[in-house]
Amino acid sequence: MTKRSILTRALSAAVLAALGLALSGCGQKSAKEDNTLYVYNWGEYIGENVVKEFEKETGIKVVYDTFETNEEMLPIIEAGAVQYDVVCPSDYIIQKMIQKDLIQPIDFDKVPNYKNIDPKYLEKSKGFDPENKYSVPYCWGTVGILYNTSMVPESEAPTSWADLWNPKYQNNILMQDSVRDAFMVGEKLLGYDINTTDKTQLEAVKDKLIAQKPLVQAYVIDQVRDKMIGGEAALAVIYSGEMLYVQKEVKASGANFDLKYVIPKEGSNVWIDSWVIPKNARHKENAEKWIDFLCRADIAKENFEYITYPTPNKAAFELLSPELQNNKALFPDDADLAKCEVFQYLGEDGDALYDELWKEVKAQ
Fold it and tell me: Residue 149 — φ and ψ, nearest 5°?
């Protein structure tokens, strides 16, 4: 998905809307008449054989659509033209969906494998789902600094977000082209909450980002992986789930450097993508079977091996090799994780303020 640099096969909103009209008019049967499940997920965000395995074990036919961003997905759910049974949004969007009454509580008696979810991720989930009533964590990760060991000596390895303001690395720094991610870096550096809507604080972050601009090679999303693999930059803000991919590619290329990842000492963002059930779902029990299936240890491990983003499934984690379990980029120490916050929905006024200040940064 675009947010986390995963390729997609997303359908456009227009195509989905048209599909929804067709389905609502003649294709979708009532829940009692069919044994179907309508799934809406990020592109390339599930093991290659998992859907077929679910269908074989349950006899439920899966209709599977993908989206590229939360902002693309949400209007589709709001419109209700396609009545999806289970969807995988990100943390702050789940909070927004709860506020808009777009999703319904999950019957956890029908999701016995929920017990496999590590309580520490459920605790983080309370930042957007306070009672853990509406969502089940699927994948998670952090945002940190990726550095090239041939350009950044180990004796100078980054430890702080302040290292992204080091003039030594002028034109060798990559920032995320995302308002919340970029502002998070400045907020953590200045000691602010990453969900602050205090205009004075946000103006200070804006000024900090503007001061950094002469050092920045580019604001990127997907390109961050290729640029770092190609040795085109020294430092980059990146999502932790990219680590297995970029390290594998660098090794395969025979390059004379490694790419290493750190969570700065000030802390960072921890994001969580979770399964939810829309209010108008026609196959709620099937949706709960789907969620339960994905919470099974072997299936969660299979998904992790394909997606490479960390699993919140403790039982699946225990099935991983010691090398993966000890990979601190993927599974940071609890002390580092404790300093990380989840993004929350800021409301329309909060979003507008961030967007306004981000435009000022980009305009400089």
Answer: -70, -15
